[in-house]
Amino acid sequence: MHDGTKNVKPIIRSDSQWIHIKDRDHVMLVLQAYADSDKKKILSAAEKPKVIMDIIDTCKLPQTSTYRKISSLIEIGLLIPAGTLPMKYGKVVTEYTSLFENLEINIIKNEISIKAKIGEESHQALMRMMRNNIVDMNKENEPKLKGYNIQRSGKAPESIIPFVIKERIIKAKNK
Q1: Quick check: helix, strand or coil at residue 152?
Q2: Tell me: the pLDDT tens digits for 127-165?
Q3: Least packed by Cβ within 10 Å: which of 82, 94, 96, 121?
């Protein structure tokens, strides 16, 4: 028997790591990255923190183009620094991990949205970024990250990191 009410699922539960991305520019940023099969391999290879050379070895892709694609993914914030690893002779290298563990793409009446689950490693990496004073708050109470800037000129955002921090971490703390 139908009582006229709709089953409505919450988009973000306070106990989850899911965020809902509706902004067209952010949606396109994510879709373009995952539409590239090489970038998708890179993001899959980095489900757990890895150094760049291990990501390249796992993907079995040409080294030069893979470095370029990894740099692009770091710049847009889909591949984030997850920590450092000490090497021989005192050298330290950065490990990277995929920002999202899982994506759901929804299309309703020509509107595309993405429901994305932030991985635990990524969540911890974002918290470390904030703890290390990488985040500065501007007057609009929006995060601004050194190296992860958002353009306000109507162009696509350079990085999804400020959006994720605002949506997942800042709003979660204000609930």
Answers
A1: coil
A2: 887 776 554 444 445 545 544 443 444 455 678 888 888
A3: 94
